[in-house]
Amino acid sequence: MTLETRLRRRRAAGHKLLMPYVTGGVTAGWLDHLRAFADAGADAIEVGLPFSDPTVDGATIQEATHRALARGATTRSVLADLADLAGAAADVPLVASTYYNLVVHAGPQRFCAALRDAGVSGLIVPDLPLDEADELADAAAVASVDLVLLAAPTTPPPRLAQIAQRSRGFVYAVSVMGTTGERTTVADSAEALANRLRDATDRPVLVGFGISTAQHAVHAARSADGVVVGAALMRQVLDGASPYDVGGYLARMRRALDQAAHPTD
Amino acid sequence: MTDVLQRVRAAGMGDPGRTGRFGRYGGGYVPESLVETCRQVAEEFRQAWSDPGFRESLTRLLTVHAGRPTPLTPASRLSTELGIQLLLKREDLTHTGSHKINNALGQALLARRMGRSRLIAETGAGQHGVATATAAALLGLRATVFMGERDIERQALNVFRMQLLGAEVVPVGTGSRTLSDATSQAMRHWVGVTDQAHYCIGSVVGPHPYPWMVRTFQRVIGDEARGQCARELTSAVPDYVVACVGGGSNAAGTFAGFVDTSARLVGVEAAGGAGAAHGRDGVLHGARSRFLQDDGGQIVEAHSIAAGLDYPGVGPEHAHLRDLGRARYEAVSDDEAVAAVIRLARTEGIVAALESAHALAWVIRAAGAGELPPGATVLLTLSGRGDKDVAALKDRSALKEPA
Ligand SMILES: Cc1ncc(COP(=O)(O)O)c(C=O)c1O
């Protein structure tokens, strides 16, 4: 089943979608964090394939990336780890995210085949805009990997419609003009963008960048189908929180989203 | 040759079109948040460049402020020693001391035209930072310059010059703490301030339209030199045109004046940062080009005594010229560059920047090896002067015992 089919089903069942992020290889036991995310009710899990020059990331994910690379993590080792997943975690769709250099390095076909073989069903490449995406989109389609495109607050309407149409899996709504990283509030631009996207497409729309608390998640999910949570979780991982603790934080977000969707349950 | 020339005319050193491609290189690999901004910069630049008013303002700034045209100096004593005819294009004599001012003035003028109140820049050797700070002060803009902590240490003079000019210098402590990381940090900052600030990139790197725009602002070097060579040389066009390559802006500007001639074009990189010579196809800082990478596709840190060459890649147009065989790229070690600074100082009374000295070192090596035939005419762009490097040079033992 494709990433998009699974997200659409969850949405149809009345759920707001929750996608936590973890940097592949950030700690020796990083798969335990991933499993904790699955146990906490993640609808999909984003796994960062570390790249030396993460230009779209703020300080936290940069630090996580550099830590993973210093531990010797590679695209190959992270995908090999993922291929070993079992139990509940094996049932949650995995979405790889990385920078385009790693795709060019391997070649788009080989890269996408490796993702598929590791059980990854989606791909996010934040430095690959619509205009440059043809080659990877074709290779991803052949490998049955959904290539997710991103939309930004400044994306003009006709382009937004194109992005929504060409994206697979879901559309990633970047909440603010900025990098990844924790913020104190959800920007107004997030709501405006999510609304514009939902007018343009029936595809799931997830808001990301800066979603840091359960309240943020609920707020952002009012106009969107769900949220992506990255730096707020990675900060805790970097500070040494256990999978149990980080999973607990995500579980509170899950409950808050479910409560907001079904206040009477 | 004619076949190559036709292909270069069709695809290289011209307008790379809306997609910003030089062959398979170039393009715009930026986050969606920057796509609209890059499109605006491209549109504004295209309009500005065809606006005689803009061109006149820029020419005037280059003349009355930057000191253009720069001279073409025959390096007489060194020429005799090497058995060739060496001509130096003197970008070291511009105001602020390097070719970087040509581009900084162009982009600052464009920023003002776009209604921006701030300039953002990255800098390695500090020369682009100084040029940006200067252009900002001149045009009443604020400037924020990102610089690696390692470069801040070794280019203290230029850090102070930027601050004196009113610019804010932001230290970057990630990665190799040099130019590449400063560039990444400047891009991250830019995303959040696109409505007020223009990112003034200092070389022919980055997303479209930067490689094209920066080369266009720098081609004043090559155009002037072409006319000067026509007066100076019986052959009118030199046999070789040589320039150092970090990202490659002084080389691109110089080559642009000669790409349609029979001159052989040579770009000289630092041995520890030879993206064109030893890099692999990749994408970094917004463009597809050639970058130093490991077997897993991670970018490898560059190392050079010349901070301005401490970058793991080259601009996309250089990657394309290399593939076409229109230009060749050679690498020079730190020691060769230091020796070249000293040799030029003692034969011509000119202290070159360590960056430029790489280009000279290749000329010295090639002349010594007989690769440059006796009597060959060589145009070399002296991209900057060496004031900023005196502390680094003082530390080198080579200087203590003159030969
Ligand atoms: C004097 C000088 N030459 C050359 C360079 C390298 O830049 P580019 O390769 O863009 O000409 C620099 C960069 O800082 C420089 O300061």
Architecture overview:
The complex is a heterodimer of chains A (265) and B (403). Chain A has 265 residues and is α/β, with parallel strands linked by helices. Helix content of chain A is 49%, strand content 14%. Chain A is globular, with a radius of gyration of 17 Å. In chain A, 58% of the residues are buried. Chain B is of the alpha/beta class. Chain B is built from 16 helices and 14 strands. In chain B, helix 11 (249-256) links the parallel strand 9 (240-244) and strand 10 (264-270). Chain A binds chain B through residues 51-58, 62, 66, 69, 74-76, 99-102, 104-106, 126-132, 149-156, 159, 163, 174, 176-179, and chain B through 19, 27-33, 35-37, 174-175, 180-181, 184, 187-188, 191-192, 194, 280-286, 288, 291, 293, 296-299. The structure holds pyridoxal-5'-phosphate. Residues 98, 124-125, 127-128, 203, 244-250, 308-309, 353, 355-356, 383-384 of chain B line the site of pyridoxal-5'-phosphate (PLP).
Any ligands, ions or cofactors bound here, and which? pyridoxal-5'-phosphate
Order the strands across the largest sheet of chain B as they lie in space: 3-4-14-9-10-13
- The residue fraction in helices of chain B comes out at 40-55%
Structural category of chain A is alpha/beta
Major beta sheet, strand line-up of chain A: 1-2-3-4-5-6-7-8
> What is the string of helix and strand elements of chain A?
HEHEHHHEHHEHEHEHEHEHH
Mean pLDDT metric of chain B: 95
Q: Helical region count of chain A?
A: 13
Radius of gyration of CA atoms of chain B, rounded to a whole number: 19 Å
Order of helices and strands of chain B: HEEHHEHEHEHEHHEHEHEHEHEEHEHHEH
Give the termini distance of chain A in whole angstroms. Answer: 29 Å
Give the DSSP E fraction of chain A (strand runs of 2 or more residues): 5-15%
Largest interface: A-B, 43 and 35 residues
As an assembly, this protein is: heterodimer
Unreliable stretches of chain B (pLDDT < 50, length at least 5) are none
Number of strands of chain A: 8
Mass-distribution shape of chain A? globular
Number of helical regions of chain B: 16
Beta-strand percentage of chain B?
15-25%
Share of helix of chain A, binned: 40-55%
What's the total count of β strands of chain B?
14
